[in-house]
Amino acid sequence: MKNGIVIADAGPIFSLAVLQKLELLDALFNEIKIPSAVWEEITLNENTPTYKPIFNYFKNKVFKINGLNDLNLIMDYGESEAVTLYREVNADFLLLDDKKARKIAENFGLKCIGTIGLLVAAKSKQLIPELAPEFKKLIVNKRYYSVDLLNELLLQNNESPLTM
Fold it and tell me: Which of 95, 103, 147, 163 has the most CB atoms within 10 Å of its CB?
């Protein structure tokens, strides 16, 4: 069973693209949307290896917010538009990694999931066999996550902790 509508921010998009796992979004959610500000951010540099898969995957998932973005003074422009779009379309999840933005979104009652939570959900649904190789790829590709948190999740999922 899929989990409704998810609004994605740039950070998790880049992380999933590095892992070559953008398709997990389709497997876990009925609908994936991003606001225009996130589109601008993820398509800014055409020379990155992840540009083409990101462009192709998200080109038909971009939505312009209708209302006023009154949050861009307290969070990044893409994150604030993602929160605004979430509210406008009555989404089910906000895919967001930034700790400060996530805390703000959760204070507004938004249901948030991050890249790591998405990978754990994917493993529980047998969409990926193991978390450790994905976590290692994130670290090698300079996607910043707490190694302590990653190891805690690995242990909870009966996997060996990372040795880096």
Answer: 95
**Is there a domain that residue 9 lies in?**
yes
Classify residue 126: in a domain, yes or no.
no
CATH number of the domain that 42 lies in?
A: 3.40.50.1010
Q: Which domain holds residue 68?
A: 5-116
Q: Answer yes or no: are the C-beta atoms of 51 and 10 closer than 8 Å.
A: no
Whole-prediction pTM: 0.92
List Cα–Cα distances, 98 to 5, 15, 44, 88, 114, in angstroms: 20, 12, 19, 21, 8
Q: How far apart are alpha carbons 131 and 104 in whole angstroms? A: 28
- Amino acid, res. 50: T
Count of structural domains within the chain: 1
Angle at 141 between CA 138 and CA 146, to 5 degrees: 45
